[in-house]
Design goal:
It is a single chain. The chain has 200 residues and is mainly beta. It has 3 domains: 32 residues, no CATH class; 66 residues, no CATH class; 81 residues, no CATH class. Helices cover 7% and strands 62% of the residues. It contains 1 helix and 12 strands, in the order αββββββββββββ. Strands 1-12 form a two-stranded antiparallel ribbon. Strands 2-11 form a two-stranded antiparallel sheet. A two-stranded antiparallel ribbon has the order 3-10. The longest helix has 14 residues. Keywords: Signal. This is G5 domain-containing protein. It comes from Humisphaera borealis.
Length: 200
């Protein structure tokens, strides 16, 4: 800028020098405007690379805790007896009379009979009727049928087999290890993991 101003003055002097009279003084006034600096708005630089995210792993702590361990069972096949199944059946039947023989001694009195007897005495024949003992009195045993229970109808019940007894295969649960409490070492999260933006 300092060099341009004298050169401009020299050019102006030469332009007036041809018309100036020798020995005559010429005054030349040159006005030079200095440019003013104004601030130009500048946008912030745009970041081209995305931010870098870093994974911060979680922090664990080992603790001794008491836990419940369930019981352990095992399955064992075995034969089981299935008892028979019955059902009740009702029937109506006729019961005959129930009798018994009773022996007793009975006295039989004398047995007499009237008979016609023809007699001859002194040349005379006559007829008479006389009683004659046929059987003398005596004791004898006689049997008599005595009814103990008369004949009747009654309803009886009886058991009828529906399903006979048999064996069948079934599975049985057997305790192998009972349930219990035991201590274990477990990892417990003290601080969970997270992402953070790394500084550039």
């Amino acid at each position: 800028m300092n060099r341009l101003i004298p050169m401009a003055l020299l050019g102006v002097a030469m332009s007036f020098g041809g018309s100036a009279i020798a020995g005559e003084r010429t005054t030349v006034t040159v006005t030079v405007e200095t440019p003013k600096c104004q601030p130009v708005p500048v946008s912030p630089p745009v970041s081209v690379c995305p931010p870098v995210r870093c994974w911060v792993p979680p922090v664990y702590e080992e603790k001794r805790v008491q836990v419940w361990v369930d019981a352990v069972y095992r399955t064992i096949p075995q034969r089981a007896w299935v008892p028979p199944v019955y059902r009740t059946v009702y029937e109506r039947i006729c019961r005959p009379a129930v009798t018994k023989t009773v022996l007793e001694r009975v006295y039989i009195p004398d047995q007499w009979e009237t008979r016609t007897v023809v007699r001859c005495e002194g040349g005379t024949t006559y007829t008479t009727r006389e009683r004659e003992l046929v059987q003398p009195g005596h004791f004898e045993s006689r049997s008599t049928q005595v009814v103990v229970t008369p004949a009747r109808e009654e309803t009886i019940e009886r058991q009828e087999v529906v399903s006979a007894g048999h064996y069948r295969e079934e599975l049985k649960q057997e305790l192998a290890s009972p349930g219990r409490f035991e201590y274990r070492v477990e990892r417990v999260v003290v601080r969970p993991g997270y992402y953070e933006v790394a500084a550039r």
